[in-house]
User: Fold these one by one.
Assistant:
Number 1:
Amino acid sequence: MLEAGRIVEGVTGYTTAKVTSLHSLIYDHLLRHFGEEKARAYGEANQAAIEQIAALVQEKHIDCDFARTEAYTYTESEGEVDQIRAEVEAALKLGLPAALTDETPLPFPVKAAVRFDNQAQFHPRKYLLALARDVPGAGSHIFEDTRVVEVADGQPCLVTTEKGTITASAVIIASHFPFDDKALYASRLQSHRSYVLAVRVAGPVPRGMFISTEESSHTVREQPTGDGALLLIGGEGHKSGQGDDTIARYQRLEAWARQRFTVESVDYRWSTQDNRTVDRVPYIGRATPAAKHVYVATGFGGWGMTGSTVAGMLLRDLILGRDNPWATVYDPNRLNLQGVPALVKQGVDTARHFIGDRLPDEGPESIALGEGKVVNTQRGDVAMYKDENGALHCLSPVCAHMGCIVAWNGAEKSWDCPCHGSRYDVEGKVLHGPAVKGLEEIQEG
Ligand SMILES: Cc1cc2nc3c(=O)[nH]c(=O)nc-3n(C[C@H](O)[C@H](O)[C@H](O)COP(=O)(O)OP(=O)(O)OC[C@H]3O[C@@H](n4cnc5c(N)ncnc54)[C@H](O)[C@@H]3O)c2cc1C
Ligand code: FES
């Protein structure tokens, strides 16, 4: 396993870790656009993933706050009740543990909800770090601080890292957004960032896992701690690098939480991002139509706990040459016409960020301490960050992945790319791929 940074410090270290096959509203969509066989395979795969995680927790005695609980997708709007009904009907048809209800453990009324029973939640770092302890040995190794820059298919495959080249009989690219893009994932994946607060509330903390149906959805989940339960509240999502005032997003999320819960304190806050595919089903399988030994697992769309576990089981079978009934629905090289409008939209949006963001008209004096801006100078556009002492840190704003212009993220103090979600720190170092190189430094003056 080759890891650019430290293991389980990527998106998975910041997830809300609901372990469920209830992925917002998905089954009615799958029935209509993929057909019953594939919709059933998707549901079965994700239910099997929950049981796989439960079995590993039990077998390896992993202390990771694993708990069985219910998952709900709810609406507060009368106009969305029909969508909820359709989802329950679709899920029941596929044999999933669904029920229609208008009662939930939430302290505010809902118009309707889908409930899935016997789902689960856990602490992802505790679970994965325990699994990782089993990796070294019997020919398996974990190499941290080892960024991969290129993968060549073959017998063996050649994996080029910043520190040297290794060989492997099969390679799985599981780097969140694939950095190796021979199959044009950049045109088929959209990176989506969202925000989480961990709050303490007065009175009992609602048990269960909740997500709303709104276009910009909110999620709620309880997390036990040694010092009482916290409530994780998420929302305010947007396309990565296009969040504008990201600090205002935390403020709006807190206002949403305070309208619905008696919030006593906001103890933690963070944001992270996940990739969506154009037809909402992850890409798990051979990385390109011609690939022989290179595989990919990406596009979990906010549901990577079961999605990645499905990937583990499915890719194991593909590598060992075994049949797997889930392979077709997850095939990364599928052609699904339903995804075409999203594909076109993604292309237009990306093109806009090669050109449209190079039009700043203010100088460095307009940058506040601790803030960043792309400034038009005589030497061209420069991404400038003014530190707390007033010193300017100047970088090329051209993303090292495919050349879009990065935007300032005030909440995280980072440069984020609006095209495929690469992120850089104020010194230009890669925080998040697909970029494998940093932003170029520009000397002042
Ligand atoms: C706010 C939020 C809440 C979420 N909540 C849930 C939830 O409740 N339930 C759920 O199922 N899912 C949830 N998700 C989705 C889930 O967290 C993700 O789908 C999942 O964590 C993605 O895992 P990953 O392994 O693909 O990416 P990561 O966890 O980011 O792992 C990828 C790793 O690859 C490394 N890497 C990148 N590039 C390279 C390279 N070139 N060379 C070597 N290593 C590299 C990175 O450093 C990183 O460690 C949520 C997502 C968000 C944004
Ligand atoms: S992430 Fe693709 S161009 Fe920046």
Number 2:
Amino acid sequence: MPDLPVAAISTSLVTVGPASYWMETTGATKNLVIESPETVEGFEGQMVGDRFYAPLTPDNALALRKALPNLTPTTFGLSLSVGFGDRLGICTPGHVEALNAVGGKIKPAFAQQSIREMGRTNRTPRNVLDDATWGAFQAGWTGPVGADADHLHTLEDIDRCVDAGYIFFTLDPNDHVNPEAENAAPARCEELARALDWSALNSSYDEFLATYSGHTIDLETESITLDDPALIRAMAKYGDALVQTVRMYRHLQSKGIEFEFEMAVDETDYPTKPAEHVVIMSELKRLGAFPVSFAPRFVGGFEKGIEYIGDLAELQRDFEIHAEIARVLGPYKLSLHSGSDKYSTYPLIAAATRGVVHLKTAGTSWAEALRVIARRDPVLFREVLDLSIREFEANRTSYHLSCDLAKIPANPSDSELDDLLTLIDSRQVLHVGYGTALTMFHDRLYECWLSNEDELTQIIRDHFIKHLEPFAAWA
Ligand SMILES: [Zn+2]
């Protein structure tokens, strides 16, 4: 065991064979330090005395993943898992501490970001993965890690994330879901369903109906009988999305890598009905493109950064029926998206799925990290808030929100700034303001976070313990 210098971050120390690895921080700069009697291969850097100093570069992140294999993303199968969606690249230590505090058995995807979020934060898939590697290493995470290439819409999105080293792919065919079918007349639904690209599904309109018509799925608490009108409507709504999912899956397959995938229709306009769930997953199964998890659109409101909006008893029943379908047709995991801050829903989905579940959070780490700014740099916080209010109409695009700008206090005192991250209206406005704020105030924000890193980690830790605790017993 080496004698660690004061600049060392002691949680990071790990020894593999004759080599010890740790992270050191001097002011704003962090380095990986390696002490080894053998030549240090694969890393770039320089010897200082008998220690090798390696900067936190992409190549060194890759070399570290090879040296410490638990940091190389792996598949999780049906294990209970959580995606942390850190847009800042500095919140992983807080996530690790929260995981450890609840027993350390939940499987984490520290690297998880959608292409949309990467665009708004000027990060690449590889940046996201490397930041998660450094954060997990710094905090001493010794368990396995996943890496979720979230909400991919195109084949090109897949290429970029495969190249970076992702292993979990969330395929989002939302652009191909047809909301018109929700309320269209039966004749219109038939027209839409007949017009699908059936050859891409190795099927035909008639063959589809012959396969499922009158078919009954016996669940634990009820049974679902598929009648022709429901089948036709389900296909009119989701048929083209199935074509796109299979197309994306085949593209992934052609890469020759080990991977898992999720199918996500959570960002659609209408809740996914049980019969629609059955049709989607039965068709994917038939086509040999079977996901490890499925994210339906559940009933009620899953808005960014705030509690669930809706009837919890209704949501519980929705969780239960989707979980029963997932057990009968799978098993596969149910995936809960926009899962940040929905505390009332966690015990319900954990129990309904019996722990065969994935929780996806995104953005809540950014909102919580702003508490550090509110406490340490009120001037900067006010600038972030003003910008987020000014740019709100552009920022809100593609997010589900119900905040009212008029309800945000006009001249908050310094001691009230922290509360703005708790109050719904200001929290949502700040929550979706990350892109413009990070572009405009990047250096000042990071300077404040990095000079108050322990406080940041503590805030993130406490916030995530509340998310993870209801799931920990099922892991
Ligand atoms: Zn989602």
